[in-house]
Amino acid sequence: MNPFKTEVEHLDGKLLIAMPSMGDPRFNRSVICICAHSGDGAMGLIVNKPAENLNFGDLLEQLAIKAARPIDGIDVHYGGPVEHGRGFVLHSRDYEAEDATLNVNETFGMTATLDILDDISQGVGPDKCLLALGYAGWGPGQLENEIRDNGWITCDANPALVFSEDHDAKWKAALDVVGIDPRMLSSTGGSA
Fold this sequence. Notes:
By secondary structure, the chain is an alpha+beta fold. The chain is 18% helix and 32% strand.
């Protein structure tokens, strides 16, 4: 056993915070909620990048879902570079669709059906939600290697941060959770 090996913990329901050394511009200053993590890989949703020129009302119209109430203040997010046309809803655990909701942890669920969009539009969906098109995905060991290479740091996800409408402030707020001042970050990293 190597006592110096860095182990990556189980990450379901954790936030990934992109470090300045992250080489992929698609993830610059991203905050990602990890929805599933196992030996087979990981998937998560970027929670701080609203999609340009698309809101929930537009999405409902495209899907021919008639809203029973005015739909305001619900953004659609760029969830990540994989399957841009596929929708996901990260939400509070007060909502569960039978055989369709992934219980991320005790705080968050994720559902990827048209029914949840209809329920939200009818006012019977989850209390808190974040809609995303696409997701961020990693193969076996890929995310763990990126974390070891200082591309990401992790912290516990909390609903106030994840569901905040102040998307521009989420990256700094996530760093605040772990006590890091972004002005002190370097674009290079290493380990001793």
